[in-house]
Amino acid sequence: MKQLDTELSKQFTLSDYVEQRPELAFVTVEKQQLVPLLTYLRDTKKYTHLVTLTAVDWLEVNQFQLTYLLHNYETHTDIGIRVKLDRDNPVMETIHHLWEQARVYQRELHEMFGIDFPGSPGVEEPMILEGWQGPPVMRRDFDTAKYSLETYDHRKRDTREPEIYMKEKLYPED
Amino acid sequence: MTDIDKIHDSLEAKPEPADTETNNNTEREWRKDEKTLTNSELSLEEQDWFCDARPQPVKPAWGPIEKFYNWARSHSLWILAFGTGCGAIELRPLVTARYDISRLGMQPRPTPRQASVFMIGGYVSIKTLKRIVRSYEQMQGPKFVVAVCSCAINGGMYWDSYNTIKRIDHYIPVDVYVTGCMPRPEAVIAGFTKLKELIMAGKAEGQNLYAEKFDWYKANQKQVIKDWNMPDYNW
Questions:
Q1: How many angstroms separate the CA of residue B107 from the nearest CA in chain A?
Q2: Distance CA A91, CA A125 (A)
Q3: Which of A129, A133, A148 lies closest to B159 in CB terms?
Q4: Which of A25, A36, A61, B215 has the most neighbouring CB atoms within 10 Å?
Q5: Contact between residue B126 and residue B154 where contact means Cβ atoms under 8 Å apart
Q6: Number of domains in chain B
Q7: B94: helix, coil or strand?
Q8: A58 touching B, CB under 8 A?
Q9: Cβ(B120)–Cβ(B83) under 8 Å?
Q10: By residue range, what is the domain housing residue A156?
């Protein structure tokens, strides 16, 4: 995998190479070079399978990190391509022309993280949250407990401290 | 472009008559009767497709006849096989050989029209609630609701979730609760036995409660279902 990284580094601006296992490595690439890199990996390096496309919310550094995981069926190796996005303006190029199924991931990321993929088919449609009007739910600054308490009717719960409750029950005279 | 698209385009291109506003208002006026529903979330065309009658409470029959009815009802409870939440997994062992609810006169039915018991099996997300309301209203009376699992009763482990409701009894009436996470099939059978006792005693009146407090239930449902795109009462 290190060999592939050095080979790719000649053409693309790569950084933060991490080899997790002999057959799995991650590498970070510039936002503009992502689509050329994915095209190169798919067409030349036989990384033909898009395993997943997912996002991580790095709230502290105000960034979203997208991870495109690719699989090679000949060498049985995986390579993960990471891209850092600005959290205030999360817009990324769509890759549904490379892998048609990517539009499902992109639709999900649009709904859950609010990351926009202009041109991806149906990206604006709700996937799971029908009629959702709140903020994107998987962002870390969205407080679900607070939202739940404000929005829904809660049944009152009786809670007891086990130690005190058992003391009262077993030794009522104390 | 297909023929249907052409028709749609021609409909859209057609200029609307100037007095549409007054027409709408007069059309609405006779609908503002207390006995009818407005279906106001639907478009004017769709409003005509759906019934606008409210559910009506059913009065019990003459004493002994009603007792006979209740006996018959309690001995042929048909369950709506609509798995809502993880508690639906308990329905499978219930109908198979070990617990075999056929001996209690119960069986799952594939459509709400044929069912009389709606088992809410666990957490209810907003998306599911929409289908639950629709299915419940489509069930023919007499109909009963059994809320299984703690999530349906007080939110359970989903108490802080952003997209699940915390108590089902604010949205549809519930006759019997079965607690547990998850309750064993024995507990579910105990719940159904309790439901039978209530029906025999004539106390399982969730359907009438829904008809009497219809506006309250409907307001609660519309408060959480933001994209309400169905008639006010589906049947």
A1: 31
A2: 17
A3: A148
A4: A25
A5: no
A6: 1
A7: helix
A8: no
A9: no
A10: 2-170
Whether A130 and chain B come into contact, CB under 8 Å, resolves to yes
CATH at residue B89: 3.40.50.12280
Give B148 to chain A, closest Cα distance, Å. Answer: 16
Confidence of residue A5 (pLDDT cuts 50, 70, 90): confident
B130, B154, B161: residue with CB nearest A148 = B161
The string over B110-134, giving b where at least 16 C-beta atoms fall within 10 Å of a residue's C-beta and e elsewhere, is eebeebbbbbbbbbbbbbbbbebbe
Question: Is the pLDDT reported for residue B189 higher than 60?
Answer: yes
Domain assignment of residue B188, yes or no: yes
For residues B172 and B210, is the Cβ–Cβ distance under 8 A?
Answer: yes
> What number is the average pLDDT over the span B134-154?
90
Question: Residue B205 is part of which domain span?
Answer: 77-224
DSSP state string for B157-180: GGTT-SSEES-GGGTS--SEEE-S
Summarize pLDDT for B68-86 with one digit per residue, the tens.
999 999 998 999 988 888 8
Q: What is the CATH number of the domain that holds A76?
A: 3.30.460.80
% pLDDT > 70, chain B: 85
User: Is B224 in Cβ contact with A130 (below 8 Å)?
Assistant: no
Residue B227: both structure tokens together: 């994209």
Residue range A26-58, pLDDT digits in tens:
999 999 999 999 999 999 999 999 999 999 999
Query: Is the ipTM above a cut-off of 0.95?
Result: no
Q: Cα Rg for chain B, rounded, in angstroms? A: 21
Q: What is the pLDDT of residue B143?
A: 92
B164 within some domain? yes
Residues 6+ apart with CB under 8 A from B153: A155, B147, B167, B168, B177, B179
B12 in a structural domain: no
Q: Which residues of B lie closer than 8 Å to A, measured between beta carbons?
A: 126-127, 130, 153-155, 159-163, 165-167, 170, 220, 224-228
Chain B environment of A134 (Cβ under 8 Å): 162
